[in-house]
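Worked example 2:
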Amino acid sequence: MTLRTRVALAAAVAIALALMLLVIVVPKLFAHELRGSLDDGLVRRAADVAQLNASTPAELTQPGALEGRLTGGSLYVQVIDRDGRIVTRSSALGGRVIQPDAAVRSALDDRRAAFADGALGPEALRIYAAPLGELGRGQASGGAVIVAATTADIDRTVEHTRTLVLLCALAAGALAAALATLLTRRALRPLGRLSSGARAIERSGDASERLPLPATHDEVGQLAETLNAMLASLERAREAEHRFVGDASHELRTPLTALRGNAAYVARHGADPVVMADIEADAARLGALLDDLLALAREDAAAPARGEPVDLVELARVAAAADQDAEVVVARPGTVHGERPALERALGNLVRNARRHGPAGGRITITVDGTAISVEDEGPGPAEPGRVFERFWRGRNARGEGSGLGLAIVRAIAERHGGYVTVDGSAFTLAIKELSSSARTTPSR
């Protein structure tokens, strides 16, 4: 089933269950209230009879004494003595007699009032029996008063109420199901448009296209904005990939062209020391370029670094050993958690970059400050610091035959280790996340 159908069906089932509960509970509560009111009426009538028996017992047996105010016209009243014989009864009973039951025996024997359900012929009754006082000389002294009322009206009212509630529930359920279906359709319509737009983009393969934004700013609108942001990110990544492929092709073409020309010269004129040196230099340049490309590709595809504790002071000293004019300054020692070969490569690239672009014979200073390590030469720094970490970018005054990938590799390594690299003048700073306390105490495997 579609999501729209499932949501509408779930709403309809929930509404149906709620209405079924309503149909069952409401009549029961209504019947309970009506029976409670009836019981209160029986108790009040019994109290009136008991009061009459206590004050003027002689009048209790007079004709009509139990009519009118005492019975309310719809109650049956029967007074019995302590032996269970009828002393008097209301005219509403006619020739009928309320038969003694558990409530009557409780009133006579245990002197406790009690309720019971009984019958008077085909008529269902609610019966209340209460003991009468034993003081006085009346015939009913020590007996009991029995007050009863038919429950037919209550049953009929409850049945009518149940029918009415059921009809109303069915109507409300049908209306609620229709509204749920309508609202679900309207709520999911933007999702349908998003799905259609996504299919169109999938068919065209054009990441520059965007999904339609709904008019609302609810969760669906946020989803559309998030997906469009993802498409924009994919578009930028594709453009960067195209630029990377184009730049890599250009950089690879230069040494390959030189190699082919020198090889053709050797084939025609034989080996020449100068030409062989050029071939060796071009091969070395091509090998270095391929090595940088592979390193950058590995950094792009690698998972976040999960290495070992690396002492930055030791790392700085190893990097300084490769350059006779480099010195190490320790402001604060620091240890980070990462892949030592990758961090060695990043720091080595920074040192080689400083040597290539700094003044000839100038000093290179490697400073360790906690979890940050800086490399600074004595030159003025790059003219365009905002572009130094771009792939294949080389400044106008760059010396040597670098590939323009060294600093891009440094940035990729830093980001994979959860850090960053910055430039300030001629100082390049590589910052890595600090080693956690748990990692410090756990030996590397």
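Confidence is low (pLDDT under 50) at residues 436-445. The first strand starts at residue 75 and ends at 80.
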